[in-house]
Amino acid sequence: MNRNILHLDLDTFFVSCERLADSSLVGKPVIVGGTGDRGVVSAASYESRKFGVHSGMPMKMARQLCPQATYIRGNAGIYTKYSKTVTEILQEQVPVLEKASVDEFYADLTGMDRFFGCYKFAKELRSKVIKETGLPISFGLSVNKTVSKVATNEAKPNNQLKVDAGFEKIFLEPLSIKKIPMVGEKTFRTFCNLGVKHIGLVQQMPVEMMVSVFGKNGRMIWERANGIDRSPIIEYHERKSISSERTYGQDTTDVVKLRTTIHAMAENLAFQLRQGNKLTSCIAVKVRYSDFQTYSKQLKIPYTAADHNLIPAVLELFDKLYNRRLLIRLVGVRFSGLTEGHYQIDLFENTNRTVNLYKAMDAIRKRYGDRSVMRAATMGEGSRTIGGQGNPFNGQPPIVLAHRHQ
Predict the structure, then answer these.
(1) Which residue out of 98, 104, 223, 340 is catalytically annotated?
(2) How far apart are CA 210 and CA 204, in angstroms?
(3) Binding-site residue ranges for Mg(2+)
(4) What averages of pLDDT result for each successive group of 10 residues across the chain (406 residues)?
(5) Where is Mg(2+) annotated to bind (predicted)?
(6) Is 235 inside any structural domain?
(7) Is residue 18 flagged as an active site residue?
């Protein structure tokens, strides 16, 4: 029996999420990513790609290529929310789901042809995602993961493509060698030096030659060029950690700025825990200095999702970690050891007022965005910019709380 592997990819995912929040961005060049000189492009709309902009490009170069684009820092909380919604839709419909990234999925539909047809099912599934989320999504369907992924990329934007069993080599033959997953710029340049630019020529090469040039990866590239891929679907499971990092535009030793950033990260991650009905039992802080030396510390704690438990512990970890007094390039916070559970009142330290406060704050964030209400301690220079495209307050300051549990 032939396998039926479905690959789904949310088109320009971050840009699409921003367009749902602000319809005026539709049809215009939009670039999402770090807005400082050191920032990189996380997502670029098809309108901006015409100017040569692509993900992973330095933001400084993107501004030179497409100065007329709308530049957005992005909101990880919103993207996570939409990704979770799509994941839940797919999990309800397919027997085995692999979540390859925040916007990319594989599903094993093998055996479903006997009931109603895999391609018909995939089309209906795609329509369901579009209808329920408003997000554009493309898919490729074939006998393995590699060909399905390539088919998805050929189907984009917002379309679908099926490669019938036995036609894998014919489908891949005219495509650029760069279309094969795992062929990056360095490998592509090596192929160009050999005079090879299309997959069809690789299909004709002896596998021994590929191994002699590319080592152990040579055989895998040759197999994928020939439409051979035996890799299984790795079933999706809930992640066991969440994290946040920030790279500063300029290295700094401003402790107030650093602590403000750490504070804001911990507060936002705690909100994400409560949103996902999760508790954490381990916190970690990471610091990267200007010489790129990276250090981290972690601490086991009782299960919690409460700001007033997590924030002081995270700040204390940072104070213990930051001892070199050198310029800092990056800081990060991670919560791990996650488990299902609601935040419970501790009879020895909490009151109903505290729990009610969290519920009120979270309700505002769920409706207006995760930066719509925040503690005064996170309003310093180290916090991320509030407002911008799609902000429900239209650039107005967020609600600020000065609360005794800080």
Answers:
(1) 104
(2) 11
(3) 9, 103
(4) 92 95 94 81 94 91 94 85 92 91 93 79 96 96 96 96 95 96 91 93 94 92 95 82 89 92 91 84 94 92 87 94 88 89 48 61 65 56 42 38 42
(5) 9, 103
(6) no
(7) no
